[in-house]
Amino acid sequence: MNLSERVSAFVQLGILIKNLSENEREELFWRAENKNSWFTPSSCQSALNGIAFMIAEEKLSKWLSVYGEIEPVSPKSIGIMMAGNIPAVGFHDLMAVVISGNKACVKLSSADEVLMKWIIKSLISIEPRFAELVEIEEMLKTKDAYIATGSDNSARYFNYYFGKYPSIIRRNRTSVAVLSGNESTQELQALGKDIFQYFGLGCRNVSKIFIKSKDQLQHLLDSLEVFSGVMNHHKYLNNYDYNKSILLVNREDHLDNGFLLVRETKELVSPIAVLFYEIYSDLAQLQIRLEEIKENIQCIVSNPEYFEGAVPFGGAQEPEVWDYADGEDTVRFLQGLN
To answer: Which residues have a Cβ under 8 Å from the Cβ of 285 and sit 6 or more positions away?
Structure first.
């Protein structure tokens, strides 16, 4: 199977996703939510939409065009330890490995078995030869290289077991937003998508905002009222109630709009239902601050005209196929094995 055939299979997967019948969609999403109640039908649909967007033929062609000869001299077995914080979060690693002609030996997260198994089954149905390139395993031993994603604690475990092999080991990251104070209600509502999509569980979710004045917070909270429905999810509600009680017991200053708690702190990664903020004086000072914590930031959301290179409001969870997690080029890594 050559590169063009592998690419064609992924393009067809995108078409299959777009053309799923209502019954197929409902049954798949029901099974995913039954396995992990954070994976609501809306979250599953967003994840599949993101995959279909990513694997359009013109995007795959643009992505792969920069790598020159991609066929491996000697295909490698790549162990992939997948995370399960948001639906199908391990898809990009799987695609990078098999589209580059290597074998993906996948350890699925128990939290995200349903969608990933469906994707793998669909790929093999489209192109049966993928059965030789994708294998689900419980123990990832004696592979040529490893790609592992998890928490800071699990990263230490991954380093212990996989560090002697070529590897990409990802740790906790989160995303931040930079506000100028001149944002429109529509821009702040788009930011709300970056905060609340997947209930804030993704590394591309905004967990902290940088603002110029506390006066900006009221406009933000008013604009976010359209997301109050998150409180209908029992796990989100439980997290909101728990984190609110902690803030009250500790008598920590905070704002509360009934479904989101907002607190000033230098900390970066906020708990579910909590948004951190920090005040900055000017962009030069902010750049220095962000440079200090860049290893913990997945992406920066803002108006690109105000903050150069930022992801536009509402776009945090819509990465392009060439937007690599942690900025580490997986395909280059795989090419380097040969």
So the answer is: none
Distance CA 27, CA 114 (A): 11
Q: Which domains does the chain possess?
A: 3-172 (3.40.605.10), 174-301 (3.40.309.10)
How many whole angstroms from its chain centre is CA 68? Answer: 27
Q: What share of the chain is helix, strand, coil (3-state, %, to 5)?
A: 50, 15, 35
The single-letter code of the amino acid at 78 is: I
For residue 160, pLDDT over 80 is answered with no
- Distance from C-alpha of 36 to C-alpha of 304, rounded to nearest angstrom: 36
Q: What distance in Å separates the CA atoms of residue 190 and residue 312, rounded to the nearest whole number? A: 9
Strand partners, 208: 176, 276
Half-sphere exposure of 309 (CA within 13 A, CB side): 5
Question: Residue 164 has which token pair?
Answer: 């002697």
Locus of tokens 């994603």? 149
Averaged pLDDT of the chain: 95
For 134, residues 6+ apart whose C-beta sits below 8 A from its C-beta are: 94, 98, 103, 104, 106, 120, 123, 124
Please check whether residue 76 is in contact with residue 108, taking contact to mean a CB–CB distance below 8 angstroms: no
Please list, in sequence order, all residues whose beta carbon lies within 8 angstroms of the beta carbon of residue 156, skipping any fewer than 6 positions away: none
Contact indicator for 100, 337 with CB cutoff of 8 Å = no
**CB–CB of 176/300 below 8 Å?**
yes
DSSP class of 323: -
pLDDT digits (tens, 9 = 90+) for 247-290: 999 999 999 999 999 999 999 999 999 999 999 999 999 999 99
Strand positions, DSSP E, 72-162: 77-81, 103-107, 134-136, 145-149
Rounded to 10 degrees, the C-alpha dihedral 106/107/109/114 comes to 50
Inter-residue contact 203 to 171 (CB < 8 Å) = no
